[in-house]
Specification:
60% of the residues lie in helices and 0% in strands. The protein is built from five helices and no strands. The longest helix is centred in the middle third of the chain and has 13 residues, at 33-45. It is globular and about 40 Å long. It holds the Pfam family MT. This is Dynein heavy chain coiled coil stalk domain-containing protein. One of its GO terms (cellular component) is dynein complex.
Length: 81
């Protein structure tokens, strides 16, 4: 499968995250565009029943992060194959 190397690299990157990284993320008042893009993508991936959230702003991402930061680590990757 062509996406397998990218999926493995993403898994390895997730394994490097720690509490300090999440604290830094939460500290951004206005993050760089790349950070906003990644948090918006995470919001889409974690959306219940595949319902894409209309509000994928930084403010909405911070609310989601406060609620469910551990979901990122436990996200089922089987749906991506």
């Amino acid at each position: 499968m062509k996406a397998e190397p990218a999926l493995l690299a993403a898994q390895e990157a997730l394994n490097t995250l720690n509490k300090a990284n999440l604290t830094e993320l939460k500290s951004f008042g206005s993050p760089p565009g790349a950070v906003t893009n990644v948090t918006a993508a995470v919001m889409v991936l974690l959306a219940p029943a595949g319902k894409i959230p209309k509000d994928r702003s930084w403010k909405a991402a911070k609310v989601l992060e406060a609620r469910s930061s551990m979901e990122v680590w436990s996200y089922s990757r089987t749906g991506l194959s």
